[in-house]
């Protein structure tokens, strides 16, 4: 089963992010990215108090390196990453490993994003957020070992089925809500919610992945980076007036709409036209495809003024949780994964990669050898603290990556 058709939008609408807020969304310059990878020297590995049992049996208790893994399949590529399915040699456990080339990250001004992604992944612990198990590095590469989720991207299933029933949408929306709410409670904005970043596990539960654009808000409650994925950008991001947690509730509304209808509400082949629609067009709702409850939820989530958007009021996220659309939902059951998914991917085992694009899985799973000498000691300093051991395609717009 290939995933090719599901990539169409990924190829046309990249995730974007620009730290330079002087360059607005109407800038049309772009930078291309290529990628290659390798295994070379090894670096330190920090033991964590809460090691999963698998780590305790690591061949070398003080170091985890690529040598500890058997590379099984290439399963994906992002703007800067190559993702492989791997098996840890000593425990036999299967993981996904995300491999990033330091030079490419540096050239594309992505260091901050990768540091944030790595820090957030280590920090968050939630049933619907992907878990980082190890992070290590060599002179030229960064490696993030995560739990492996092989039920396919929500995007893939949506493209297969065109749209989901409202009860199915409610199930995914409820799980996602808890994941996003958890991030917001930690003062983290996700900023790249889209069906490509929602993976399905083999039982049909969802898992939010790709924290490359996530941001700690720290003391301020707004940030100014122009980033996200065109169809999912909130008006306040386009207007560059500073944005915060409400951007995730806007994207959440877009995602719910897309799951029900098959395309996002303000979609256009032309990105400028799409921005225009996001800022000005009426939201078209269908009585055939949507109950009154979900229509009301969408109207409130897709409110252009972030201060008035559902989830931003005095009652915070409980405004969403208590909306009539979710009436009857037992949130504790959702959290405990006691709600049985109506759809279960046909995955035979944890090794099964049938839901990944054959374009990737038929390629050899290799980590190419590169030249470790290109990054001097001072540049390497930027990656200090990356190493980690825990318990454990709409494309986006990214920093220095102006593709609008
Ligand atoms: N933990 C995982 N388990 C299974 N597959 C995964 C996992 N993490 C990533 N993938 C696959 O690899 C693809 C690329 O991963 P990811 O989106 O994290 O890379 P990225 O470079 O950050 O992407 P982007 O350029 O879109 O930001 C995903 O779309 C998914 O199909």
From TrEMBL:
InterPro entries given in the database record: AGC-kinase_C, Kinase-like_dom_sf, Pkinase_C, Prot_kinase_dom, Protein_kinase_ATP_BS, STKc_AGC
GO MF terms held by the record: ATP binding; protein serine/threonine kinase activity
Protein kinase domain mapped to chain residues: 69-326
Any Pfam family hit: Pkinase
Disordered: region residues: 1-43
Residues holding ATP: 98
Basic and acidic residues compositional bias, start-end: 1-10
Keyword annotations: ATP-binding, Kinase, Nucleotide-binding, Phosphoprotein, Serine/threonine-protein kinase, Transferase
Segments forming domain AGC-kinase C-terminal: 327-398
CDD domains the record matches: STKc_AGC
UniProt protein name: Glucocorticoid-regulated kinase
Lineage: Eukaryota, Discoba, Heterolobosea, Tetramitia, Eutetramitia
């Amino acid at each position: 089963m290939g995933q090719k058709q599901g990539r169409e939008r990924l190829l046309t609408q990249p995730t974007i992010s620009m730290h330079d807020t002087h360059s607005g969304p109407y800038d049309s310059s772009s930078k291309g990215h290529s990628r290659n990878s390798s295994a070379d020297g090894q670096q330190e590995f920090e033991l964590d108090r809460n090691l999963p049992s698998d780590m305790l049996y690591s061949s070398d208790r003080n170091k985890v390196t690529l040598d500890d893994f058997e590379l099984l399949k290439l399963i994906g590529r992002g703007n800067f990453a190559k993702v492989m399915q791997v098996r840890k040699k000593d425990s036999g456990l299967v993981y996904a490993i995300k491999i990033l080339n330091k030079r490419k990250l540096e050239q594309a001004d992505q260091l901050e994003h990768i540091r944030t992604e790595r820090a957030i992944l280590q920090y968050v612990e939630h049933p619907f957020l992907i878990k980082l198990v190890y992070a290590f590095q060599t002179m030229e590469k960064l490696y993030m070992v995560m739990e492996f989720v092989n039920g396919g991207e929500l995007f893939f299933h949506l493209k297969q089925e065109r749209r989901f029933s409202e009860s199915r949408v409610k199930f995914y929306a409820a799980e996602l809500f808890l994941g996003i709410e958890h991030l917001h409670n930690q003062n983290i904005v996700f900023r790249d919610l889209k069906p490509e970043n929602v993976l399905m596990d083999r039982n049909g539960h969802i898992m939010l992945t790709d924290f490359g654009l996530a941001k700690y808000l720290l003391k301020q409650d707004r940030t100014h980076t122009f980033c996200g994925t065109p169809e999912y950008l909130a008006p306040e991001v386009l207007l560059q007036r500073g944005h915060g947690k409400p951007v995730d509730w806007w994207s959440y509304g877009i995602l719910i709409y897309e799951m029900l209808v098959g395309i996002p509400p303000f979609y256009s082949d032309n990105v400028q036209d799409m921005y225009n629609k996001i800022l000005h067009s009426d939201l078209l709702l269908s009585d055939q495809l949507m109950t009154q409850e979900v229509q009301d939820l969408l109207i409130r989530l897709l409110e252009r003024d972030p201060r008035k958007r559902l989830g931003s009021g005095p009652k915070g996220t409980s405004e969403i949780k208590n909306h009539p659309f979710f009436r009857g939902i037992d949130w504790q059951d959702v959290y405990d994964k006691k709600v049985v998914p109506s759809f279960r991917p046909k995955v035979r085992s944890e090794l099964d990669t049938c839901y990944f694009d054959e374009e990737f899985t038929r390629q050899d799973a290799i980590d190419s050898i590169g030249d470790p000498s290109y990054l001097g000691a001072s540049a390497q300093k930027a990656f200090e603290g990356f190493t980690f051991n825990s318990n454990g395609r709409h494309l986006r717009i990214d920093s220095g990556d102006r593709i609008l």
